[in-house]
Amino acid sequence: MNEESVWDEKFLTGKRVLVVDEDQGLVDSNVDLMRIWDASEVDTALDATTALEKMKTEPFYDLVVLEIVLPLKPELAEKMERCKNALSDLSRQRNALVESPDFEHDEANQKFQEAKRLERKISFVGQTADDSLYFRAGLEALMDLSSYLKAKFGDDFASKLPILVLTSQDSYLDVAYLLKSTGLNYRLLGKGANMVAIAANIKRLLSLA
């Protein structure tokens, strides 16, 4: 199978597809791709909450194409912002203590050590949310969907809904590890993959549905 021949294939004929991505431009590109492959209906969502609501609606989609990096829920985004602001304030306080002529005194040094410990703690929270779990919203949506399908229809049904999960190369291994616990019928693909890889993974998913 090469890219030229993939343009002419119609393996999504009669299929309902949901495309999820926070980038409207990428959504539009993937919608066009699904239509090239003759999907009968292509729906879209720009965030995890909307995507989850649509994925739970019956009749279910025949295929979901989901970019796992999605906007965080407002409350989590606000918490992250507070962490960043607190970290910035503590850094300034710590620097001011170091520059103080009284820094050698026990009280000033104790305050410095307390600020340093807090700084490390807040920095860790910020890094966890920003770096390791920046795909948290998309992952939580899939886990919620898995729990919903298992509770309503059983484990077998949850393992049949085809989901093509797109992620960056940097987070590929982390996402692969976390997705194992969902029990969903997913294929993980690096974002920016060519048409041949996308087509091959979708065909594989549909064959397992």
Protein topology:
Layout: H1 3-6, E1 16-20, H2 24-36, E2 41-45, H3 48-55, E3 63-67, H4 74-99, H5 106-132, H6 136-153, H7 155-158, E4 162-167, H8 172-179, E5 185-190, H9 195-208
Parallel strand pairs: 1-2, 1-3, 3-4, 4-5
Describe it for me?
The chain is α/β, with parallel strands linked by helices and 209 residues long. The protein has nine helices and five strands; from the N terminus they run αβαβαβααααβαβα. Helix 2 links the parallel strand 1 and strand 2. The two termini are 22 Å apart.
Average pLDDT for all residues: 80
N-to-C series of helices and strands: HEHEHEHHHHEHEH
Instruction: Count structural domains.
Output: 2
Structural class: alpha/beta
- How much helix is in the residues? 55-70%
Unreliable sequence segments:
124-133
Main sheet attributes: strand count, strand direction, barrel closure: 5 strands, parallel
CATH superfamily of the largest domain: Response regulator
Shape: elongated
Q: What is the number of helical segments per DSSP (H or I, 4+ residues)? A: 9
Features:
209 residues; alpha/beta; Rossmann fold; 5-stranded parallel sheet; 5 strands; 13% strand; elongated
Structure at a glance:
The protein has nine helices and five strands, in the order αβαβαβααααβαβα. It has 209 residues and is of the alpha/beta class.
